[in-house]
């Protein structure tokens, strides 16, 4: 893999989660452009720089020792990659303060470097949260590959920060440079809420939650077919989002024990609040993490999963396949993984390579619900 070579540092970087013969590098031309632009401004060692949505730590790791850098984002894997890449490049793993997107920022910041996220609601929330945290003369610089940079990103910068100047494209990357102006404090439109009819619950959704405006159609197909009569089973909702699968299951299985895991901090924040609203103080484990990577082997009886099919801008089934492997390791012999997936993804044959028995529980014209037994 090529090294990231910037005016600040030369780094050997890896992505998370790691996979053999990784076909993708851990930085892009937008990272390089941002670092080159910042270097031209010759920031002092006392400059406070906030990095938002740093894919795998390329930006923040480059700035260690050059400025006072803080990193914030909503991806557990991205923040884990930053720590691993610091160590990989002989830097202390705790060299950079890390602020999950579910937590408040502490400014003021002289520069804010933003990798434009796939979910523009996350960008909007982050820009609103910058209010009161920008130093006099600050700049907010957003970057993305041109093909992933919607016009709406510039509109959001104009609305919440100030005048925006777009750079020329360099190696198919572009910068949006915003100059802060005095503005009326904005009220965040997040979290959003919607109601389900069955079970009859209200679901709250922070800005980066998948399908925050309403239940996604895969989950809608899955809900009527969640397992019942689980007794005291240990159940995990893998990639839990706002927690709807676990909450619906828990309402039908009052003695079961639940663990909810997602790599999005805002998903865990949403799931925590939704669990408490629907189930009060009923015991539950919720954590942001790399799927079931930290789960004890053979410690679960049931895993529920509506697997993702993309990581940031990259589409593929790598993450889903990894989740299936994690579920197999975490399940007891005889335990079961229940999933919903698009028919065309062929999950049945993938699961059959890992599990001793795979059966179709139900199907719609678009989705299949499968049960794979360990």
What keyword list fits this structure?
374 residues, 20 strands, Rossmann fold, alpha/beta
What does this molecule look like?
- By secondary structure, this protein is α/β, with parallel strands linked by helices.
- It has two domains: 4-180, Rossmann fold (3-Layer(aba) Sandwich), CATH 3.40.50; 192-373, Vaccinia Virus protein VP39 (Rossmann fold, 3-Layer(aba) Sandwich).
- Helix content is 27%, strand content 29%.
- It is built from ten helices and 20 strands.
- It has helices spanning 29-40, 58-63, 76-88, 120-129, 151-160, 217-222, 244-252, 265-279, 318-330, 347-352, and strands at 4-5, 10-11, 48-52, 68-73, 98-100, 109-115, 134-145, 162-166, 173-180, 192-195, 202-205, 234-238, 257-262, 285-288, 300-305, 310-311, 314-315, 331-342, 357-363, 367-373.
- The strands form five sheets. The protein has a seven-stranded mixed sheet, sandwiched between helices.
Short structural summary:
By secondary structure, the protein is of the alpha/beta class.
What's the structural blueprint in terms of helices and strands?
Layout: E1 4-5, E2 10-11, H1 29-40, E3 48-52, H2 58-63, E4 68-73, H3 76-88, E5 98-100, E6 109-115, H4 120-129, E7 134-145, H5 151-160, E8 162-166, E9 173-180, E10 192-195, E11 202-205, H6 217-222, E12 234-238, H7 244-252, E13 257-262, H8 265-279, E14 285-288, E15 300-305, E16 310-311, E17 314-315, H9 318-330, E18 331-342, H10 347-352, E19 357-363, E20 367-373
Parallel strand pairs: 3-4, 3-6, 4-5, 6-7, 12-13, 12-15, 13-14, 15-18
Antiparallel strand pairs: 1-2, 7-9, 8-9, 10-11, 16-17, 18-20, 19-20
């Amino acid at each position: 893999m090529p090294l990231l070579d910037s005016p600040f540092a030369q780094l050997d970087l890896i992505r998370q989660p790691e996979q053999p013969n990784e076909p993708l590098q851990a930085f892009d031309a937008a990272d390089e452009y941002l670092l080159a632009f910042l270097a031209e401004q010759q920031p002092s060692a006392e400059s406070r720089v906030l990095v938002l949505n740093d894919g795998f730590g390329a930006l923040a790791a480059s700035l260690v020792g050059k400025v006072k850098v803080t990193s914030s984002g909503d991806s557990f894997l991205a923040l884990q990659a930053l720590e691993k890449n610091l160590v990989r490049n002989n830097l202390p793993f705790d060299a950079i303060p890390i602020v999950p997107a579910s937590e408040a920022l502490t400014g003021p910041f002289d520069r804010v470097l933003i990798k434009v996220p796939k979910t523009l609601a996350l960008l909007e929330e982050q820009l609103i949260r910058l209010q009161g945290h920008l130093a006099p003369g600050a700049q907010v610089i957003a970057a993305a590959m041109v093909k992933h940079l919607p016009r709406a990103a510039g509109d959001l910068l104009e609305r919440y920060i100030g005048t925006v100047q777009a750079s020329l494209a360099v190696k198919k990357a572009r910068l949006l440079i915003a100059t802060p102006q005095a503005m009326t404090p904005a009220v965040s439109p997040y979290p959003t809420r919607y109601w389900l009819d069955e079970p009859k619950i209200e679901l709250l959704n922070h800005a980066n939650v998948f399908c925050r405006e309403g239940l996604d159609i895969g989950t809608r197909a899955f809900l009527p077919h969640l397992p019942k009569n689980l007794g005291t089973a240990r159940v995990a909702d893998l990639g839990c989002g706002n927690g709807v699968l676990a909450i619906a299951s828990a309402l039908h299985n009052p003695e079961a024990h639940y663990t909810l895991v997602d790599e999005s901090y805002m998903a865990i924040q949403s799931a925590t609040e939704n669990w408490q609203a629907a189930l009060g103080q009923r015991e539950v484990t919720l954590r942001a993490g790399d799927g079931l990577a930290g789960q004890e082997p053979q410690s679960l009886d049931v895993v529920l999963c509506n697997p993702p099919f993309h990581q940031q801008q990259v589409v593929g089934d790598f993450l889903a396949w990894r989740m299936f492997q994690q579920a197999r390791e975490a399940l007891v012999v005889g335990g079961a993984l229940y999933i919903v997936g698009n028919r065309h993804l062929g999950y049945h044959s993938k699961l059959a390579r890992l599990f001793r028995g795979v059966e179709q529980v139900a199907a719609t014209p678009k989705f299949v619900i499968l049960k794979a037994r360990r």
